Amino acid sequence: MERTFYSCQEVADRYGVKISTVWAWVREKKLPAIKIGKIYKVRKEDLEKFETQNLTVAT
Fold this sequence. Notes:
alpha+beta, Arc Repressor Mutant, subunit A, 3-stranded antiparallel beta sheet, 3 helices
């Protein structure tokens, strides 16, 4: 079964940032997340879109 959701800690580990940075992205609506109880989960599709939107291209 393919994974569809990531925790904020997993996102932080993936990008090498603090979990508070991921929470800030969620609060600032830069990274969509689903709140389940007290925990935020990020959909795989939203994480891929976040990566595409923040991609820098050398000119």
